[in-house]
User: Fold this.
Amino acid sequence: MIWTVAVSLLGLMALSIPVGIVLFLLGIGVGQFFSPFPLLRGMGQMIWSSSASSTLIAIPLFVLLGELLVRGGVAARTYAALDRWLSWLPGGLIHANIATATMFSATSGSSVATAATVATVAMPQGERMGYDPRLFSGAIAAGGTLGILIPPSINLIVYGFLTESSIPSLFVAGLLPGGLMALGFILVTALICRLRPGLGGPSRSFTWEERLRSLVNLVPIIVLFLVVVGSIYAGWATPTESAAIGVVMAALIAAFGDGLKLSSVADALVGTVRITAMIMLVITAAFFLNFAMSSSGMGRQIGAMIEGAGLSPYATLLVVILLYVVLGLFIETLSLMVATIPIVVPIISGMGFDTIWFGVLMIILIEMALITPPVGLNLFVVQSVRRGGSMNQVAVGVIPYVAVMVAMLIALIALPGIALWLPSIL
Amino acid sequence: MLDSLHRGICRANRAIALLLGLALVIMTLIILCEVVMRKLSLGGLNLSEEISGYLMAAMSSWGLACALVERAHVRIDVIRQKLRAGGQVFLDLLAMIVTNGVVLLIVVKCWPVLEKTIQRGSTANTPLETPMWIPQGLWFAGWAWFLLTTTVLSLLGIAWLARAQRAPLDAALGMGSELET
Amino acid sequence: EEHFAGVGTWSNVYVFQDYEKPFWDTELSKLTNGEMSAEVNSLDQMGIAGADVYRMLGDGVFDFGTTIADYAVGDAPELEGLDVPLIAMTPDAAHKMIDAAEPMVKDIFAQRFNATYLGMLPHPPQVMFCRDEVRSLADLKGKKVRGSGRMTTKFLEALGAQGVNISFSEVPGALQRGVIDCAITGSGSGLDAGWWEMTKYLVNVPFGGWDTAVVAMNTDRFNELSEKQQTMLKDAVKTGLEDPIWAAANDRMEQSIDCLSGSEACKKPTGAKMEIINFSDADIAKAKEILVSTVLPDWAGRTTPEWVSRWNDSVGKVTGVQIAQ
Ligand code: NA
Ligand code: NA
Assistant:
């Protein structure tokens, strides 16, 4: 069954049918051919309940936050400031892509929103300055994934929700690995561009005066981070509520900065609705597909397979990681989490691994899934901002960053403290 | 005629998206009020948890058509980009008609949800006791609107094809390659 | 041979792990001499919302379904009477209450959900985890409490607490940061979910009732069985599922309280050391008074007079509570 599903998925998607619709078609197919039950009768109920979710309101809120920062010019100024500080490195502007993505990750809970924000401000620059599109757009897609590792994070909220673990602990646990990974992205970019200068752009240097003066442009984003994350730790707001506080704060920052025109507010709202609906079609469809697959016994098959193998804890962990890498190629990430956490986390924690630590590990795997073709939401988002060119270019551009993610996974397994140290002292 | 029908449906969807966006703004303010009132121990409104769920449902049905006319739904172009214009048109139309069919099925399967709610007079399992036909009715209407939009676009696509008008066909059903900003 | 597939309660709760799953997956076949077999998935694994389980069951999406009755009160407000807080303080009393409600529940399931009642499963009582000292009803005034379900939340508000509506996932964080002062859940799930890490006081009063789950089968499917098979299935659910859970209910409840308080009787100590607080008899009486004078009549307004009189004659009789009409 797993193979039939995978092959149909690829085939239908290759026909350029919208991904959400393909997932629905597969769910219908699985229900008809592999399940003894008339699952279609439950379809409406699944669609209603998976979309009427107050936890998911964090998605449009974080998207809107990003849109406001873009349209209020905050994103562009942040990008310009980071350009002053980092473009002397081999690879030039690509480092600003990564650093901007990292900073936006600290205010946004969604990788897709982060990638969309950075792509919108960075892509025109890269195109204007004649960068090789592969590494340039790959860095945005990969950098954007940090949005769910560095707090706040919608996916960590979902993980905490499903595993009943502390969301604030998860948030702090993601901080250090997120920072290290951003550093890793920068290092690998510099290394590649040192070896193959054609892949990057010109290294540019700015005077210290220019750099220091640009620092003021980083203030808004830092304030926003402090407000969004601070409101959670001060006990004022839940993580979802902090997203709403962030939106109001972003609107104020944008309004007091360049000022927000009414028409650009309208564009921001329409853009938010458009992106949210696009994501929600995929999520609802994935929920239905998950429902179809688990009622036809697929979840069971996987669980039994892992448990029945009688492997040592680390071998099991390896199997689980490989499972996520493979499934992550094809499946939308939030639904991948929803589908697998109830099966995998009990097995993993039963083997003595820490749930918070595994949450961070899983998020890195999910980040990988976001940028691996054929289904990689961040690839799609970055591609949708580009003017022309094939999606393959973005997919090739992320390869070095996937390597960094693999290195991070290994480091995290060897030194769990990377994730667990901060929660233990806070 | 065809073009103005297409423009009309695009404009209607933009207006709908704007309304949804405004609802999101209001929701944001309600959440903010609740946070502040709770912090000041003024008692809560306690609306946001429940209503934000309904808003999400409305956004994820009514917003679909907006995403569709602005070509924001994710499509994979690995094969499509290798085809010549004729093949691309074929795939675009196929994608739209398949979407139309699936959405038709979804609408048919979503109706019983609302129907049961109306028959039983179901309310939300919350102190607010919201009559569920209101949020579910809104949600269902959004899917019905999406069905109408996909149907109109499919028919427009066929009509344009019959008249061999490739440019408007590509503009309406093709692959969105830029997120307009 | 008859094979059933269905949905059970939460995968992380002992009722599912230790009873439902083994019962459907293996015991049923043994109890029916191989004439019946089944497979069960938890609702969280299937990604089904609690409120959808019986709706889908009625549509025949699966053969049998088990979920907390309280999740379905949006579709069947009369079902709220099954799990009234505070009128049953011990497992024995809860057992009597639930037995008395059985004929009502049967009819509700037949009328509302096209489903045939098979049995009811209790969870540990729903108690209150608090950050700060709450020793009496007076202390509860103004506290921000996250309740579960409609009647519980209304009850808390009638008691002077401030009901806060946040999703389950956000409870631990909200407790830790003081967004809320108290939260209600089953003592067992609170233990498993580590709520004791964020709270110090456990108010051992069943503010949320017993979270009774109802096992039911799609009626069309049930009618496909021969009469003999129908009896066989009902008996199997009773002896293989219901009875063992009841038999263990007292121990389970005591164990979870022992483990939350860090008492030596706890078999699997977690390090929890909560102070267990029992309200005075006077406070309980007062709370019950408020329940009877405000919360239950409020429920009566949501359902029909017929259901209220049936409730008075059954559950009301064994618990000594009457709703004025
Ligand atoms: Na983030
Ligand atoms: Na992927």
User: Anything to note?
Assistant: Chain B touches chain A through 69 residues (CB under 8 Å). The helical segments of chain B are 2-39, 48-69, 85-120, 133-162, 166-173. Confidence is low (pLDDT under 50) at residues 177-181 of chain B. Chain B has one domain: 2-173.
